[in-house]
Amino acid sequence: MLDPLSDCSPLISAASSGKLRLVRLLVDGGAEVNGRNPKGETALLAACKALRGEPAGPETIKLLTYLLQNKADPNAQDRAGRTALMYACMERAGAQVAATLLAAGADPSMEDYSGASALVYAINAQHQPTLKVLMDACQVRGRDIIIIATEVGVHGGPVTRRYLNVLPSPNTSPVSCMSPSDIVLKTGSPNSPEGENIFNFRATSE
């Protein structure tokens, strides 16, 4: 029997390589969909992480959908605390991947062990279509989002702006932020400020 923590898990390897037919064969043959490798990655996590900055194509969407239909956990976290949704945002996989994961129950407000959420990674990647999908999902859950961003003003100086449930302007440059306080995401009911979750921007590196 294959050790689910083996570095050579055929299912995780197939998912990471985008081999949908092989993934189907392995799952049909009894492979554990939520089995993990030593990095804590599941097949779903590995598939999103493997995109490496490339937008997901139709076959990748089919692969992710197949795994989710076979009870892949959309909120599984690896050893860094990151989820498939976080990696999809980080790797600029596209709004369709984010929407697919959210429809399957991915939680956009979950944080990794550094305190960053998928919302933070979407801003860090400067991918507005994905960020809009995440913001819409938060609003459906009854949460308002405030983005406090430092932008470059008309005279070249920093200008702080607040965005309530809307995207930052294209002039926002979160990657160049030097302090976690430069961008703050708040989610929660506007009627219960004490219950707000606060997500600080953190530049990420592998």
TrEMBL record:
Pfam family, one: Ank_4
ANK repeat feature ranges: 6-38, 80-113
Domain of life: Eukaryota
Alphabetically ordered keywords of this record: ANK repeat, Repeat
PANTHER family: ANK_REP_REGION DOMAIN-CONTAINING PROTEIN, ANKYRIN REPEAT DOMAIN-CONTAINING PROTEIN 34B-LIKE
Protein family according to the UniProt entry: Belongs to the ANKRD34 family.
Protein name: Ankyrin repeat domain-containing protein 34B-like
Protein species of origin: Haplochromis burtoni (Burton's mouthbrooder)
